[in-house]
């Protein structure tokens, strides 16, 4: 089994090397992302292993197929960067449905606490022996209302964490769970009630720019928006406008719509061309982390192990419960019933 692993980073290579030895998989690491220009690097490999910002769309899929690649192994849960319909009949797609929902939910709370208690400002001040408290006044989370959009694995853990803080919870989900402890409301109602909004739904046509210029005026004044899901859930220009109009009190962003050419790389000392991101970063009430919510030891170990198990299941056993197929109306329930490959 020879697998070309694209967008390889120093933090994930050791985990994949270890799992490669354990599962007898030859991983070859490419620093470059997968796209139409780099797809030919996969020639002679049985599969490719990709991450959130690799491009697995029409042209790339054709090239991979011509080069003999038969499986795309996503080392993440989200798959909005893969054209599943185009893959069907040619290349199988497997993913890691969950590696540590705790990592992402805990990062969302870390961002919220940082923002509310101005930890980022205090850290910089005390490094400079500035012990003034001026401008650092926060507010209690206890008793505040958090609106959670997407109550799947991560959203559910985030709600549990918020309950621990004594917060009130309202939720919106296209497929609400039968859980009496969760108070589901309409999206507009969630916008109206929430002091904090946290996004935990996948990116799809329906959720694209779910926070946009029409949503902003519906928000509670001073709301804090957390996005640890996918950048394109938020229209960043509308967000900036909402902050300037003092409707949005703060934003904590682990993801950004145009992150693919920036995040995971060091641009210190460079002029970043993206004016929208630069404007966001310049704002005192915006915190940006570069898609690091997943980045814990536990998550990295689980990602490497599940990806390797997916490849073994696919190539040696001829099936994989973590295969994705565009024909499944509901990917999750279909997987439970499926006993063979998608095609
Ligand atoms: P999940 O599949 O367990 O939950 C997603 C939830 O969103 C489900 O309850 C689903 O019903 C709901 N949903 C689907 N369509 C919706 C819609 N149109 N409106 C409202 N809700 C909708 O997924 P999980 O594991 O909780 O992950 C959530 C997202 O977090 C992923 O899609 C991914 O984009 C993101 N993520 C981000 C990471 C990071 O490092 N920042 C790491 C891992 C995941």
Bound molecules: 1,4-dihydronicotinamide adenine dinucleotide
Report the order of strands and helices. EHEEHEHEHHEHEHEEHEHEHEH
CATH superfamily of the largest domain: NAD(P)-binding Rossmann-like Domain
Computed over alpha carbons, the radius of gyration is 21 Å
Which bin fits the share of residues in helices?
25-40%
Distance between the termini: 20 Å
What is the tally of beta strands? 12
Q: How would you characterize the largest beta sheet?
A: 6 strands, mixed
- By secondary-structure content and strand pairing, the structural class works out as alpha/beta
Please identify, by name, the CATH architecture of the largest domain.
3-Layer(aba) Sandwich
CATH class bucket of the largest domain: Alpha Beta
Number of helices: 11
Low-confidence stretches: none
Overall mean pLDDT score? 94
Number of domains: 2
Percentage of residues in strands: 5-15%
Strand order of the largest sheet: 2-1-3-4-5-12
Q: Could you please say which CATH topology of the largest domain applies here?
A: Rossmann fold
Backbone shape: globular
Short account of what is shown:
The protein has 343 residues and is of the alpha/beta class. Helices cover 33% and strands 14% of the residues. The chain has a 6-stranded mixed β-sheet, with helices on one face. The protein has a 6-stranded parallel β-sheet with strand order 7-6-8-9-10-11, with helices on both faces.
What does this protein structure show overall?
The protein is α/β, with parallel strands linked by helices and 343 residues long. It folds into two domains: 2-99 and 297-338, Rossmann fold; 101-288, NAD(P)-binding Rossmann-like Domain (Rossmann fold, 3-Layer(aba) Sandwich), CATH 3.40.50.720. The protein is built from eleven helices and twelve strands. The chain has helices at 13-23, 58-66, 84-87, 101-116, 119-127, 153-164, 187-193, 236-244, 275-282, 297-317, 331-337, and strands at residues 2-5, 26-29, 47-50, 71-74, 92-94, 145-149, 168-172, 196-199, 223-227, 248-253, 286-288, 323-324. Strands 2-1-3-4-5-12 form a six-stranded mixed β-sheet, covered by helices on one side. Strand 3 (47-50), helix 2 and strand 4 (71-74) form a beta-alpha-beta unit. Helix 1 runs parallel beside helix 10 (297-317) and helix 4 packs across helix 6 (153-164). The chain is globular, with a radius of gyration of 21 Å. It starts with a strand and ends in a 6-residue tail after the last helix. The relative contact order is 0.14. The structure holds 1,4-dihydronicotinamide adenine dinucleotide.
